[in-house]
C-alpha cells in the first residue's frame, strides 16, 4: 500500500482516507457501531492508516465510535478530526476562536479516548475571527502535545495564504493539509486552490470523490432524488446554500459527465464508481482520497476501484469530458464533510 507525505511534513498517510460521517450510535445513523468497527478493521488490515472524522458528525457520536474501535490499534492510525461547527447555543460555542477551539479539542479528545490528535483541522473558515488568533491557538495545541499537525477544510486560496502567513509571522505551526471537494464533476479547485496548496506546502484530501453519488449512478436525469437520500435531505434544508448545492449538482452537464463515466465502465467491463475513483487516484495533486462507506462491502468495492489503473487514453477522454465544469454551487466547497 502506497503512502505519501502529507504536504510539507514528515507525516505519511495512505492514499486512501476513511471518512466516517455515516458512523454513529443513534438509530438513524447510516452505519451502526458494529458495522463501523468492521469497516475500520477492514481498512486498517488492508494497510491504510488515515481516518477522518469531525466533532459535528452524528452529534459527536462518530468520534465516540472511532475511539472505541481504535483503542487497541491507536499507534496504527493517523487520526484526523475537525472543529468549528456549533457545539452549543452560546455565541462562543462555534467558529475558530481560541475559546471555542480549546473547548472543541478537549471534547474531541474525550470522545476519541486519546491523548492527541494526529491532524486537527479547521472545518470551515470563520470570517469573524482574526486568522492570527486561530493559528496561534492551533500552534499552542501543537506545543502542548495535544495535536501533531494542523490542517483546514473548505478554505479558499486566499484563506490558505492568509493562514500560512499568520503562522510564519508568529514563527508558529503552518497548515499541512486541505480537505476539498474534488471529482470529475467538481474540478474548480484546479484553477487557484491546487497551485496555492502546492506553493504553500499543503497536501490535498479529496472528499465527495463520487460527486455525492451522482457518478455512482444514484440519481437520474430529470428525476427528483429519492426520499431519504442525502440529496433529498439537503434539498429539504432551510439553508439556501444547501438547496443551491443540490441544484448545481444535478445540472445537465454533470449528468453528461456521469453518462460518459458509465460508458467507459461498460467498455472496460467494470463499474462507474471504479472509473471515477481510478481517475481521481491518478491525479498527482491529490494526496489521499476520502471514502465514506456505509458498509464493509462498500468499502471493499471502493478500495478495489482505487486500485484500478485507467488506460491513458481513457484518462484523456475523461479529462476532456469534465475539464470545463466550473459550477460554483456544485464545485465550490460545501460543508458536509
UniProtKB/TrEMBL annotation:
<dbReference type="InterPro" id="IPR023210">
    <property type="entry name" value="NADP_OxRdtase_dom"/>
</dbReference>
<dbReference type="InterPro" id="IPR050523">
    <property type="entry name" value="AKR_Detox_Biosynth"/>
</dbReference>
<dbReference type="InterPro" id="IPR020471">
    <property type="entry name" value="AKR"/>
</dbReference>
<protein>
    <submittedName>
        <fullName>Aldo/keto reductase</fullName>
    </submittedName>
</protein>
<feature type="domain" description="NADP-dependent oxidoreductase">
    <location>
        <begin position="16"/>
        <end position="318"/>
    </location>
</feature>
<keyword id="KW-0560">Oxidoreductase</keyword>
<dbReference type="Pfam" id="PF00248">
    <property type="entry name" value="Aldo_ket_red"/>
</dbReference>
<dbReference type="InterPro" id="IPR036812">
    <property type="entry name" value="NAD(P)_OxRdtase_dom_sf"/>
</dbReference>
Amino acid at each position: 500500500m502506497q503512502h505519501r507525505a502529507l504536504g510539507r511534513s514528515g507525516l505519511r498517510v495512505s492514499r486512501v482516507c476513511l471518512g466516517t460521517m455515516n458512523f454513529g450510535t443513534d438509530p438513524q445513523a447510516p452505519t451502526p457501531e458494529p458495522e463501523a468497527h468492521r469497516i475500520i478493521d477492514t481498512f486498517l488490515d488492508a494497510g491504510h492508516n488515515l481516518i477522518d472524522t469531525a466533532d459535528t458528525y452524528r452529534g459527536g457520536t462518530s468520534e465516540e465510535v472511532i475511539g472505541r474501535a481504535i483503542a487497541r490499534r491507536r499507534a496504527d492510525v493517523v487520526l484526523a478530526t475537525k472543529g468549528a461547527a456549533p457545539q452549543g447555543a452560546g455565541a462562543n460555542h462555534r467558529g475558530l476562536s481560541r475559546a471555542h477551539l480549546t473547548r472543541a479539542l478537549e471534547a474531541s479528545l474525550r470522545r476519541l479516548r486519546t491523548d492527541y490528535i494526529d491532524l486537527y483541522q479547521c472545518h470551515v473558515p470563520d470570517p469573524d475571527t482574526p486568522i492570527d488568533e486561530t493559528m496561534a491557538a492551533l500552534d499552542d495545541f501543537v506545543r502542548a502535545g495535544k495535536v501533531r499537525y494542523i490542517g483546514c477544510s473548505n478554505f479558499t486560496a486566499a484563506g490558505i495564504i492568509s493562514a500560512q502567513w499568520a503562522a510564519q509571522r508568529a514563527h508558529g505551526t503552518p497548515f499541512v493539509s486541505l480537505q476539498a471537494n474534488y471529482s470529475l464533476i467538481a474540478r474548480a479547485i484546479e484553477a487557484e486552490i491546487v497551485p496555492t496548496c502546492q506553493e504553500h506546502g499543503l497536501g490535498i484530501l479529496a472528499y465527495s470523490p463520487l460527486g455525492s453519488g451522482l457518478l455512482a449512478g444514484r440519481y437520474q436525469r430529470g428525476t427528483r432524488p429519492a426520499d431519504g437520500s442525502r440529496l433529498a435531505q439537503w434539498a429539504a434544508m432551510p439553508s439556501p446554500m444547501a438547496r443551491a448545492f443540490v441544484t448545481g449538482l444535478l445540472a445537465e452537464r454533470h449528468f453528461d459527465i456521469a453518462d460518459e463515466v458509465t460508458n467507459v465502465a461498460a467498455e472496460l467491463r467494470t463499474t462507474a464508481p471504479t472509473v471515477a475513483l481510478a481517475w481521481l487516484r491518478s491525479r498527482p495533486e491529490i494526496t489521499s482520497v476520502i471514502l465514506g462507506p456505509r458498509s464493509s462491502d462498500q468499502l471493499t468495492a471502493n478500495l478495489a476501484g482505487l486500485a484500478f489503473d485507467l488506460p491513458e487514453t481513457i484518462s484523456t477522454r475523461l479529462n476532456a469530458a469534465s475539464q470545463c465544469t466550473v459550477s460554483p454551487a456544485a464545485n465550490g466547497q460545501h460543508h458536509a464533510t
